[in-house]
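Annex B. Sample input.
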Amino acid sequence: MTNPVPTPGQPVRGSKTGKPIMALFDLLGRSWALGVLWQLSEGGLTFRALQARCEQVSPTVLNRRLKELMASGLVQRGDAGYELSDTGHALFALLDPLGPWAQAWARGLEDADKD
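Annex B, continued. Sample output.
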C-alpha cells in the first residue's frame, strides 16, 4: 500500500495536524524526491533521461515520485518532458544554497577524520 501524497492540513509523517512545513518535509523526504527536483532544476528531461541522471532509479519509484511531485504542483509536463513548475523553481531557489553548504560540511567531516 502506498502512502498518499502529503497534503497540508492532513496527517503526514511527523505531524497529526499536517502543518504545511511537515507536509513538505514528508514529500521531500521520500526516496528520490530531492534528486528529481535537483535534476529538473537544470531543465526539462524525458523519463529515460531523468532516470539515467538519477543513477538508474527504478522506473516504479521514479514514476511514483513524479506523480507525487506533479500532484503537489512542483513538477509539470512540458515540451522537453518533465520540468519544474514555477512553484518548483521557487522551492529549488531555496534549496540550491544547500548544495555548497553540504560540500563544505562534507569537507569539514573529512578534515576532522584526518585529525
